[in-house]
Design brief:
This protein is mostly helical. It has one domain. The protein has four helices and two strands, in the order E-E-H-H-H-H. A two-stranded antiparallel ribbon has the order 1-2.
Length: 139
């Protein structure tokens, strides 16, 4: 079957490949650029390495929570509460959560969940814009 004849399902081709992978990776890199730069700058200026470490560690935790929740959803077992997922995203795990959403196709269609998720991502972006460019005017 040629490329144009493939059926598409839930953002993937029949063969399981993620649609628009380059675009999604570019968007991910753009979203991570400001927090990564800000956290690195904080560390290098001896303000604190906590943001850098938190983004890495909490993103891994978020990724694992999404993976576990997806497995539990398939097994019809007890699920991770959405407020726990959002709390981990807010604590700096949104990059790991975004990767997990795309890789596991989990929590991508629930609009109410996505609204809160993207608000958290926006909050992180605004925080770093404020810290780096506005002199901590807002936070």
């Amino acid at each position: 079957m040629n490329e144009s004849g493939r059926r598409k399902r839930a953002g993937r081709n029949v063969d399981g490949a993620v649609q628009h992978l380059r675009l999604k990776l570019m968007l991910f890199a753009l979203l991570c650029a400001l927090p990564l730069f800000g956290a690195l700058l904080f560390g290098l200026r001896a303000v604190s390495w906590v943001p850098m470490v938190a983004y890495g560690v909490v993103s891994v935790v978020a990724f694992l929570l999404y993976w576990s929740d997806k497995r539990k959803a398939r097994a019809d077992a007890w699920r991770t509460p959405e407020n726990v997922l959002h709390a981990v995203e807010l604590a700096g795990g949104w990059p790991g959560a975004l990767l997990a959403q795309q890789l596991f196709r989990h929590k991508t269609r629930k609009v109410s969940f996505q609204v809160v998720f993207w608000f958290i991502v926006l909050l992180h972006q605004v925080f770093w814009i404020d810290q780096l460019f506005l002199g901590s005017y807002l936070f």
